[in-house]
Amino acid sequence: MNGRRFALYFSWSRPAEIDSEIGVLENRYPTLFEFRRAIWPVADALRDPAIFNQDISGFLDHVVLFDFERFRKVILDVTGHEVPVFQREASRCATQVLDDELLQDVDTLIVISLDHMRTNQAATVGEIEAIKSFLAREDRCVIVCPHHAIGETQQIREVEFNHHGDRLVPPEQRIGGFARTLLKGLGFSVANQFGLSPGKTSNGEPDRLRVYRDLDTLNLLHGVETFNLHPHLPHFATSDCDDHRVSVLAKQPIDANATPHPFVQAGNRLFDAFLQLHSPDIGGSLFVCDATLWSSAFGGLTSLERLWKNLASMR
User: Fold this and answer.
1) Contact yes or no for 179/111 (Cβ under 8 A)
2) What's the superkingdom here (predicted)?
């Protein structure tokens, strides 16, 4: 089997994330103990502290990273290649940058930008140049995946909290700083905004996407009808990008029954959920979507697995 070679790159600083002050609500992940308590009894299997660290590191390992295992298995089955996982700062001793050495055995790079903005993770000039060189090849693909940016101002925090309704999320949680800097370095100003509650059907499944199939020239969304039901998803704003440089491939409905959000009150019923970015310097493919599209934790798996397999079959 001679399939595409994938890599997952988590752009967080693990030490900066796990050393967050527990007494501060804002801009940190929950501890595994907090997670278990909030959703009990769903995660009761993670209760033994002798096996599962109950701090933030336990949440990163046994919840966040674990949720990407199904994606890795699907890609392995299709391509015959294991999907390596890289962490930008797995420890205080070293930083794994995006460089030619990391990229030499990769065809499709997925940048999982789950770094809190307060940790100041930013793509360096060298990393931006490495990605530009990588994308110069027609058969290469990069998918940049930030997450939500909730509570950017004091005035909106309670409104957003009531809209998404997830008690695990603090009033301010801004994630995806590395993604923003990488995209800016590549010439695109893309802002991951808000934490919008996605629409669902009467039987609790994700609502159908609005897919612009005429723009999906690689058929990446062929057979993909829905994404997932993560309770707070970002809108990708590209207001200062020229229209010919940005293709919105899919919009996702917002939950009409959720407490009103200013984005909805401004007349929006859908948010931009999947983008393709174009430049004369890009011979390959550059996409932007939410980090949870590679996670198995939030439903919609039939369509998501179709997306994963389409990506694995790209030429």
Assistant:
1) yes
2) Bacteria
